[in-house]
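The methods section describes the discrete structure representation at length, but only in general terms. Since the whole study asks how a given chain folds, the encoding of that fold should be made plain. An entry of this sort, consisting of the sequence and the corresponding backbone structure tokens, reads as follows:

. . .
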Amino acid sequence: MRELTKVFAAILALLLANTASALLVYDQNNPYVFLESGESKTITHDLRDNGVPDSFLVTSAKLVLGFSDGYWEADKAYDFADISGDGLSGTWEVDGTHKFGFDIRWLDVGSDGIDSLNTSGLLAVTVTALAYYDGKSQPYNDFWWKTSKLKANIEPIPVPEPATVALLGLGILGLGVSRRRSRKEVF
């Protein structure tokens, strides 16, 4: 019985052993576009052009967007943007009055975005300068959308290696042989 437990423990250890590790892949897309109240711009991040093979899965992703303030001298108020796309949605203040005129937004990409990255390798992002926010007109809502960087964690799709499967088969065969021998000795 002890030998059987050791064999099963060895098999379980082989099955749980994972030599793969996660990688971090970046896709930089700098739209450098000026958006005024009511205008929008869509860009697409493409992980395929970074050489990510089909045998890898995106497990999580973050989007880092960079903004700076617009031209209006009277623009001392906050600027607001609606950010949307697969796995992205929400309204943020993006006026660049922070960090010496540059504002950075870190967004987690949701499950719809992860699915899009895994099926097509693409993630579309749309930024809209809101004409209205909180029921109020925003006539001076203008800003620069300067940077967009996608950071994706990828892992190889686990595939059993032939040597592992062969070793598992030999272990099961050895169990059968030892069991057969022990039955013959008893009778």
